[in-house]
């Protein structure tokens, strides 16, 4: 893979990472609930899911999914249901994340990792992203070095971006202000996730 081709891959991965969506909402929520370590763990778990999609595309399985729409629809529906479940949890959270912490019930590290990985693996938009734009880079990579870059570039870009988000939000002054608005953030996050879930399901029909 040429350097100019890799720069194109880097630019597309960066644009995909910085786009606001459920992934950003999840990293923000876990940083707010558990602090910097939870946010960073959620970020890198999310990036692992991104890497899995990159690897699937590299192995040619994306083309297989493209020719079997029922498989894609099943994954899309599963993703929509998971988004709806996360949205419902946020909407029905009692007292906001700050009161949960005060009550001695912080969000676990396991939950941060689980949600970070699942929000990427079950997001059909990410699959569409790789299927539509990523294949051109797969074709350009003829050697093992280029193929490794195809997988590692989106993983590192995604993980670093959300790590930066977690660092910014975990600064004491910023985090204290956000925690004061924790219940409102829960409600907004819940509404956004529910709307995204509806959009995913509706787009299939």
UniProtKB/TrEMBL annotation:
Subcellular location: Cell membrane
Bilayer topology term: Multi-pass membrane protein
Transmembrane regions: 44-65, 70-88, 126-142, 149-169, 184-202
Keywords: Cell membrane, Membrane, Transmembrane, Transmembrane helix
Cited Pfam families: LysE
Signal peptide location: none
InterPro entries listed in its UniProt record: LeuE-type
PANTHER family recorded: AMINO ACID EFFLUX PERMEASE RHTB FAMILY (PTHR30086:SF16), ARGININE EXPORTER PROTEIN ARGO (PTHR30086)
Protein name: LysE family translocator
Originating species: Shewanella electrica
